[in-house]
Amino acid sequence: MKSKKDNIAEYILYLWQMEDYLRAFPAHAEATPELHELNEMMHREGLLEGGHLQLAQNALTELEELHSTLLEEDAMYRAAIIRLTPQLNLLKAKTDRPTMSDIEACLTLLYQIMLLHLQKKAVSPQTADVQQQATQLLQFLSKTYYANSRTV
Q1: Which of 136, 89, 95 lies closest to 112 in space, CA to CA?
Q2: pLDDT tens-digit map of 23-32
Q3: Contact 8, 144 (CB under 8 A)
Q4: 15 partner at 20 to 30 Å CA-CA among 25, 29, 49, 77?
Q5: Chain mean position to CA 149
Q6: What pLDDT is stored for residue 123 in this prediction?
Q7: What are the residue ranges of helices labelled H in 25-101?
Q8: Within a 10 A sphere around the Cβ of 72, how many other Cβ atoms?
Q9: Domain residue limits, the chain
């Protein structure tokens, strides 16, 4: 399984992908010990129809806390999120959860683009630009998370 400390954003996206995989292919839940364990967690948490594992939610909360800290302490980070905010607000307005956090919106954007790529569907240049900005933001957060986890 992907490690949260190596890249927390990729870890969250990986968990979301495995959740969707297990919902789509429940017969494959026993294919590996990892899938079995994730499937058991989904059963215990009542997530067979939708929602995210507590593992993913906890990691998202940690990323959002780091985001809040960086907004206060890092002017370049704050400028990057300000540039991205209008596009994130448009994305949020198109979802069933318009009050989701900016970080969850970035992750949702990247996850949806990944699904489009799997379906061999094109992404507009504007969406690709937002994807790049969101990716850079999440990379910075993940690197900062990794650096902080090594010092703790």
Answers
A1: 95
A2: 999 999 999 9
A3: no
A4: 77
A5: 19
A6: 94
A7: 33-44, 54-73, 75-93
A8: 8
A9: 8-151
